[in-house]
Amino acid sequence: MLEKIARPEEIRRWDGDMPVRHRYTPGVAGDAFFTALKDRGVLLGSRCEHCSYTFVPARLFCERCFAELAADTEVGPGGELVSFTIVFVGIEGEPLESPRTIGAVRLDGADAVVIHRVLEPGEEPLEIGERVEVVVRPDTQRTGSVLDIEGFRVGG
Amino acid sequence: MARRVAVVGAGMTKFVRRAQETGKELAWEASREALVSCELPLDRIDAVCLTSAPDAFDGVHMKGEYLSDGAGAFGRPYMRTYVGGGSGVFTAIQAYYTVASGMADVVLAVAEEKMSSTQPHPQGAFLTIFDNILERPLGPNLLWIFALEMNRYMTVHGIDKRDIAAVAVKNKRNAADHPAALLGQADITIEDVLASETLAWPVQRLDVSPISDGAVAIVVASEEAAKQITSDPVWIQGVGWNLDTAYWTNRDLVFPEYVANAARMAYGMAGVTEPRKQIHVAEPYDPFDYKELHHLEGLLLFDKGKAPEAARDGVLDRKGDLPSCPSGGLLGVGNPIAAAGLMKLAELFWQLRGEAGARQVPGTPERGVAQAWGDLMQVGTVVVMGREGGPPTTATQLETPPAATPPAATPATSLSDAEFRSATGAVEDEIGAKYAWDAGVAIGRFLDGLREGKILGRECRVCHRVLVPPRMFCERDFRGTDAWVQVENTGVVQTFSICNVRWDMQPLDEPELPAVISIDGSNGGFLHTLGEVKPDEVTIGMKVEAVWKPVGERRGSILDIAYFRPRTDG
Question: Considering its fold, how many domains does chain B have in total?
Fold first, then answer.
């Protein structure tokens, strides 16, 4: 039944797309998190006393026991580097001009781990378990975005 | 032997145009309300069934995984099912068989949809349900399918548009008593519907349900667990689901056989032999007003073509002989797609317990049917629910006034468009994926034929059908088709629409005339457009012929046929 295609240029392809964009709103807990980040430069989490677990960013509910939570717990700015990776290629597989380091950090006072850039890791190799600190941009540059956080600085 | 299964709790958010809550937060609010309604903590839930329609609405790939925490799935067996618009009812079927099989005793079934995320219009996500090679070049929009089906349904049965508009009026009026409704309107009239903007004739603005955000959840339990949880379980007596052909232009556009097949399956399981006597309340799927009537006939509750008279005569009203969509349905409560289907089961739960407050249908109904429809417009999903023990003793014996109209709490915050546009932390982005579709074997040859000015089909010598567009296999006999056949360049208009809007609801300068045409010498229909004819001169049954592009301009595309026009040879 199948016909062999001898000349690849004869393959008929129809190009297309799905012409949609998406607008993502941060929700109830996200609103509190981003407003605090923008206005005060702090990171808000949500503490579930029943589960003894602090989520960050803030959440409206505890996924473990379904309790309603408030954005009531400031976390960081210090934290522990839980893991990291050094990225050499971009999203299309192209080499990056300079490698980027991405860290997973458990901020002080939080149980959940967040991901962000590690700023200028320096000459010394990074070590899992070392101390880092969140660097928040100056208030004039903050817009209410995850990029209001510049990244994690080693030390602190 | 399957175990008996009951619904013991239900909850839902408000259905709103733009929710402040994320999809996760909506799912959690509905799930929490469902648990609160039957006083269960999350740790009593053994497994979670979730549904949500296309990922492209929320703009989240793997939406099931994304929504899992809001659905209470942390640390539990969990699965998202998805059958398009039929999803909301199907997730209850999934919960049913998860419990009936003995795999779990108490299951949370959750349905969520956040359509406001899709810009500029959720229809953009629907475009790829059309055949990307044979239909999309024609510039279709989703309304075409509904308008074409509605026109044929109306024409074949001689239905008055007023009788269809009566459904929109009934549902929007019913929804005025629903605390979670988006479009409840107690004073709407048939004239309002008939005066609303014509989108794709015969579909007008108020014939259509609104784009919505929202979530619904129900708690489903085994007989033993149900009796511990509540004195008033509502039993899932039967479930059914069924698929018609994936080629929508090949389906019977007048009668939804897929619904009838699903209904027969569910009625058989429920022991319902005379649905018109044994079903006391119905929640058929009503994304468009004619669809409710179509589906009531598919549910075997009315003879073919007779449901519109019932709408006209008040039979479907809340106090009529067969109350239909007492909730207000998708047309009134709203249509966050997957959530809207599960809302129908929640309504039956409240109605059959006698708890529906201002929406309660009289006469202590004992059995109801909920139905939804979806996939590529060819799936029917049906659930029969009942009390089996007569009226709810607790509700009728209580001296206290009836509780407030459910749902008891209706979280979800509605944002204005300005708030939506300016929300702190909001991000706008696109998936940015591009696709390249290969024509495949049958369609590749078909397109070669078009370039030569021939319409080619494939013949199946078992069912004696000639398939146009051709397929290399017959879906009915599940065998290879036998031979190429050149069919005529002429055909008959099965149905048509006069479409005034693009897929993003922007007005067109000139109306388009999509039509389903059965090509002479083939079986089944074929989507194309009409030309060289005034819109008001097109009729169903009109004989048409293909108008080919000049040879030099043909490129092996469905557009090598410029359009079909009335036959010039008489």
Answer: 2
**CA-CA distances (angstroms) from residue B163 to B199, B290, B306?**
19, 9, 10
The alpha-carbon gap from A63 to the nearest alpha carbon of chain B, in Å, equals 5
Choose among B32, B427, B433: nearest Cβ to A66.
B32
How far apart CA B123 and CA B130 sit, in angstroms, is 12
- Report if pTM > 0.90: yes
With a pLDDT cut of 90, the percent of chain B lying above it is 83
Nearest to A28, CA basis, from B62, B214, B423: B423
How far from B250 is each of B37, B138, B466, B519, CA to CA, in Å? Answer: 45, 18, 12, 12
Domain that holds residue B406: 5-122+204-412
The C-alpha atoms of residue B435 and residue B5 are separated, in whole angstroms, by 44
Question: Is B434 an 8 Å CB contact of chain A?
Answer: yes
Provide the edge-to-edge strand list for the sheet that holds A53-55. Answer: A53-55, A43-48, A73-75
On whether both B224 and B89 belong to a single domain, the answer is yes
Contact (Cβ atoms closer than 8 angstroms) between residue B525 and residue B506 = no
Task: Answer yes or no: do B479 and B555 share one domain.
Answer: yes
Strands (E), B365-513: 367-374, 379-386, 427-429, 434-438, 455-460, 465-467, 473-474, 479-480, 483-487, 490-496, 498-501, 507-512
Chain B interface disruption, residue of A9, A25, A38, most B CBs within 10 A: A25
Answer yes or no: do B404 and B488 share one domain: no
Locus of tokens 């706008």: B428
ipTM: 0.88
B484/B522 same-domain check: yes
Is B284:B311 a contact under the CB 8 Å cutoff?
A: no
Write the pLDDT tens digit of every residue in B476-494: 999 999 999 999 999 999 9
CB atoms within 10 A of CB A132: 28
Residue B396 lies in a domain: yes
CB B162 within 8 A of CB B186: no
On whether residue B431 sits in a domain, the answer given is no
Q: Which of B412, B430, B458 is the last residue of a domain?
A: B412
Distance CA B219, CA A52 (A): 27
Nearest CA in chain A to B127: A18
For residue B229, give Cα distances in angstroms to A9, B8, B104, B216, B234: 66, 7, 15, 20, 12
Q: What is the pLDDT of residue A4?
A: 65
Picking from B18, B22, B44, B420 by the largest number of A CB atoms within 10 A of its own CB, the best residue to mutate is B22
Q: B481 and B472 in contact (C-beta within 8 Å)?
A: yes
Q: Residues B369, B449: one domain?
A: no
* pLDDT at res. B464: 96
Say if residue B394 is in the same domain as residue B290: yes
Lookup result for tokens 């399918």: B145
In a domain, B177, yes or no: no
Tell me the pLDDT tens digit for each residue of A26-53.
999 999 999 999 999 999 999 999 999 9
* CB-based contact A42:A74 (threshold 8 Å): yes
- With contacts defined as CB-CB under 8 Å, which chain A residues touch B135? none
Chains A–B, number of C-beta pairs less than 8 Å apart: 150
- Give yes or no for A12 touching B (CB within 8 A): yes
The CATH number of whichever domain residue B351 belongs to comes to 3.40.47.10
Together in a domain, B230 and B372? yes
| Residue contact A22–B436, C-beta within 8 A | no
* Residue B242 and residue B320 in one domain: yes
Say what the pLDDT of residue B398 is: 40
A16/B423 touch (CB, cutoff 8 Å), yes or no: no
Average pLDDT over residues B288-298: 98
Contact of A114 with A104, CB cutoff 8 Å:
yes
